[in-house]
Amino acid sequence: MTDRTEATRPVAARSRSGSPFHLNLEQQRKRAKELLRRAQAGDADALARFRRHHPDGRAISGAKLPDRLAHLTEAQLVIARELGTPSWPRLKAHITAMRQARDSIGSAGAPDGDMPTLHIRCGSDLRSALKDAGFCGAFLEYTDPLCQGPVVDGASWLARRATFLAQAYGTPSGLSVDQIAQNLERAEAELRSAASNYERVVLWFEHDSHDQLILARCLAQFTETPVRRLELISVDAFPGSTRFIGLGQLPPEALRLLWRERRLLAQHEVSAGQAVWEMVRAPDPRPLTTVAATAVPGLPHMSRAIRRHCQELPWAEDGLSLTERLILELLAEGQKAIGEMFRDLMVAREPLPWLGDLMFFFLVENMKRVSQPVFVAAPGHTQRWPSERLTITETGRTVLTGAVDWLSLSPPDRWVGGVHIAAARPCWHWDERTGTTVLR
Length: 440
Fold this sequence. Notes:
- The protein is an alpha/beta fold.
- It has 3 domains: 25-82, no CATH class; 109-281, Dna Topoisomerase Vi A Subunit, Chain: A, domain 2, CATH 3.40.1360.10; 322-439, Orthogonal Bundle (Arc Repressor Mutant, subunit A).
- The protein contains 17 helices and 13 strands.
- It has helices at residues 4-7, 25-40, 44-53, 72-82, 88-104, 127-132, 157-173, 177-197, 209-224, 252-260, 267-281, 286-293, 302-310, 322-332, 338-349, 357-368, 394-401, and strands at residues 117-121, 138-141, 149-150, 200-206, 229-235, 263-264, 336-337, 375-377, 389-392, 414-417, 419-421, 428-431, 436-439.
- A 5-stranded mixed β-sheet has the order 2-1-4-5-6, covered by helices on one side. It has a 3-stranded mixed β-sheet with strand order 3-10-11.
- The longest helix is centred in the middle third of the chain and has 21 residues, at 177-197.
């Protein structure tokens, strides 16, 4: 990556040409016919797809498709659910809506042309896509990945962020601490001035902790400087042939569809976001565990994102964060390049993808700085990111089993929001079983 904005965003298909979110109805009909043919022939993979996605899939035993499921309509249902829609009619309706939205670009006027509008996004991935979709409003890129590094209370919090970002990503991004500080200050200034410059502000965010923590920051600002219309687009899924990770994957017509689903935020919902922001910055994570277990009014994805944020605390049984454990689990399967680990983590293993590639690299590098290595570079291979190949050590395996506590290896100090984690002193741990935190 050459741009810190993109490099710290969760991985997504940044090119929209040939998008897996462009679906062709005739192609899906052919896929359903082929799926049915293979399932009737006893193909194991086809039967497994029926079991996973058909509501009556548990009824399939052995290598035979039950007669009541051996119909094209049932295979079409499987295809529809694989693609992220509940039924074949809903899939057809979605494909039609996407086609109509595509046809309307350039002919139906700007969707946001009725009033001065500011679009806010936690990265640059929608800047050109919104223009391609026919939107004419201004764009604010708020790129600070608050899900990693210190996020503290007090007037100096931005300076702390700039220092961390320069140390963590500065060299590969090519930005100095002064440049990073200027970018952060500029984004904050634009956030503060939004109320006086625009009649409408639209927040574009997905469901992971990267996005939702920045959403909380924006809502905290808009509690202090209310805008006339504050609207939210918060997304955790979109029909397509690949896993939905972020809005940056989507083609322009999909953004027009999402625009129709935006909702006006009430003041109490904005205040709920401000409350979350204050909890994120606090040195005591216990209030956040309540958010993680309870729906946040008007913010449908905040609770799950905050739970994932809390899971980056050391876990009670082994001292590892969830991401650190997933890294060791991947390496326990065999030698892997760091780039391969990142891909596997984001595409399949991570329950709520939130990392950008530089964020992941920073985490891996920090895991190397321990008293006894848990993984080492494989001999005879390049040590350049992302091709450097790693192999787990015996110590790594014992940490993974919980026989050795990760914090006993003296990893570098780190932060989860306002919570400081230092191996040399008591710190907060996450109890996955109870969804609570404990200081020890």
